[in-house]
Write the structure tokens for this entry.
Amino acid sequence: MARYTGPVCRLCRTEQNKLFLKGERCKSDKCPINKKRAAPGKDPKDRTGKRSEYGLQLREKQKIKRIYGMMEKQFHITFENALRMSGVTGENLIRLLESRLDNVVFRMHFASCRNQARQLVLHRHVMVNGKIVNIASYQVKPGDVIEVKERSKKLSVIQDGLKEISKSGSASWLTVDEDAVKGTFVQYPRREEVTDLADVKEQLVVELYSK
């Protein structure tokens, strides 16, 4: 499976926006966005002019891809699936992205970032309905129970992630049992419930792929 292996802080600098790709570091003073670091490249000031319509659409697609840690082919397949569903395509896209297993593990605070959550899934630490699932893109359905294997519950990355529940709580479409390190995917989230993506304009992605 192809994946990005370069410096992730560079991706945030490219988008000039926090994508929260490194967990606690993104909330600290070490984050390059907090330091107002310029976009990467030799002459970033030359690229600060007004963007074309296509440029805006492309940047929005890249931003969403990077938030969820996906490559182009996988992201495009997800969009095609959203397009075939009934309802608003952009909202369907967010719904499919939010129901990926690695994202659900992150939302349940079993990991401090999506990259870490993906690693937990790939290393077979996560079970769905009592069975180990090591596919990060696995689509979780309402009623599915996600839990960490018994012998993995004491892992420091998982315990550190669970501490965040007391600070920010869990997503409204999930229920989480901290002591058992398990949770239930109650329902697909409505677009307005995904508050940390409030500045994401998924409709621009729909327009880009519709050309």
The helical segments are 8-15, 53-67, 72-84, 89-98, 101-107, 114-122, 156-168, 202-209. The mean pLDDT is 85. Strands lie at 126-128, 131-132, 145-148, 174-177, 182-185. The CA atoms of residues 78 and 93 lie 7 Å apart.
